[in-house]
Specification:
single chain; 167 residues; mainly beta; three-stranded antiparallel sheet; 1 helix; 10 strands
Length: 167
């Protein structure tokens, strides 16, 4: 009876154990510098943050950053995560450096000055006003005549221009 009781107690204890999560939760990475690049893509502002710093260990990896906005301040949280059951290299004198380019969401942002806050570092940038241009249909030249005309779907036929006969 005692044997059955101890066996059932042992199996109950083993079955109630919880496994640790696959990986510890992400934590902020050590960011040392931030630069903001403002460009244009398809008539819209294209803003990217170039972030560099150091990871906490040789096994740590950058994960997707978190972005939020409050007024004219855009906050970007650069995160790192160390997978479970990884081996850390102890012979490195310093933690590994990183540099990454992170696109900043500009949907709904008006032209003006903004502040980017990345893990405690601040960088200012400006979204320029949109430059609209008016296209008048007569101002554009038409497409040039093609040198090859496609008569059949598979056989290209070269366009021949008639020449005047020589006397």
């Amino acid at each position: 009876m005692l044997r059955i009781f101890s066996l059932s107690l042992f199996s109950l204890i083993v079955s109630c154990q919880t496994k640790p999560p696959y990986a510890p939760p992400p934590r902020p990475a050590l960011v040392e510098s931030v630069a903001v690049e403002v460009g244009e893509f398809g008539g819209r502002p294209d803003v990217s943050a170039v972030v560099s710093g150091h990871l906490s260990s040789t096994a740590a990896l950058l994960v997707d950053p978190r972005q939020s906005r409050e007024g004219q301040v855009i906050s970007l949280e650069v995160l790192e995560q160390t997978p479970r059951a990884t081996t850390l290299l102890t012979d490195l004198g310093e933690s590994p450096p990183f540099e990454t380019r992170i696109p900043i969401g500009t949907l709904g942002l008006e032209p003006g000055r903004y502040t980017l806050a990345v893990n405690g570092l601040l960088a200012e940038f400006e979204i320029p006003p949109i430059q609209a241009s008016l296209l008048v249909p007569g101002d554009r030249p038409g497409p040039p005549d093609p040198a090859i005309v496609l008569v059949d779907e598979f056989i290209p036929i070269q366009k021949v221009t008639p020449t005047s006969p020589s006397p």
